[in-house]
Amino acid sequence: MSFENRAEAAHLLAARLRSYRGQSPLVLAIPRGAVPMGKIIAGALGGELDVVLVRKLRAPHNPELAIGSIDDAGVVYLDPDTRDLWTDAYLEAEKRVQSDTLRQRREMYGLVRPRIDAAGRIAIVIDDGIATGSTMIAALRAVRTTHPARLIAATAVAPADTLQLIGREADEVVCLETPVVFYAIGSHFRDFRQVSDEDVTAILKETARAPSAVTAAHVGKP
């Protein structure tokens, strides 16, 4: 299966997640590519959209390969299978680089609206695709610390072995396609154009709700 674009994948994921419609789920997209998808899914389910900020820690000399990930609280997840690829000095330098990027993005996105609390809510973490799983695992762990009622990982495409890892972190995993041969995530989309920080900021601004509306939406909810 190949997706036309992120929008098609988002509509298909929304259909798979339709049991959560009307339960005011919090859709947490991993920037940047998943944010347009999160907007579609949140709209279809009658939920809210926010972002969960994590960054891939890149392998030396191969920035496409993840050796782990870091969230905006500084919590690090490392892929044990990549231990031979990096030194402690390299890891510390890469952590600083990615932490700076996360800080800049939090400041940029935070100018639009404050972070939405996932406590007691159905939280659906969205990514457009998953390769090694390190970024999604870091995102799920970050959200888990906020004590959601249910934590769901949702993506368009991922390898089967990676989904097994994700399943240890989430209460539920929803994936549209698990190809036997997995290449780059973008190879499973006919249109995989880049999403910019400006695109993310515009979507967050467009989907922001007034505090009074958010409060009203949760009256009587656990």
Description:
By secondary structure, the protein is of the alpha/beta class. The protein has helices at residues 6-16, 34-45, 88-110, 134-144, 160-167, 197-207, 211-217, and strands at residues 26-29, 48-51, 54-59, 62-71, 76-78, 122-127, 150-157, 172-177. It is built from seven helices and eight strands; from the N terminus they run H-E-H-E-E-E-E-H-E-H-E-H-E-H-H. The strands form two sheets. It has a five-stranded parallel sheet, with helices on both faces. The protein has a three-stranded antiparallel sheet with strand order 3-4-5. Helix 1 (6-16) packs parallel to helix 2 (34-45).
CATH class of the domain at 6-54 and 119-217: Alpha Beta
Number of strands: 8
Shape: globular
The helix count comes to 7
Keywords for this entry:
single chain, 222 residues, alpha/beta, Rossmann fold, 8 strands, 37% helix
Describe the structure concisely for a colleague.
37% of the residues lie in helices and 21% in strands. It has 222 residues and is α/β, with parallel strands linked by helices.
